[in-house]
């Protein structure tokens, strides 16, 4: 759910040149996507731990997943 996350302050969505995204509609979509991703990851984490997966190992797996993400045009 929106608003239930692990927010620490306000996220700054930066563009490749380092300037923040300022379009309100884009910011709204980005925050909604963040909340959805956070909810899915939280559910995945909780399920895996309840099924006996080591939490530290799962955190490493999730970090590897994120590190392997490529944006459009990045190959």
Automatic annotation (TrEMBL):
It comes from the Bacteria. This is Uncharacterized protein. It comes from Elioraea tepida.
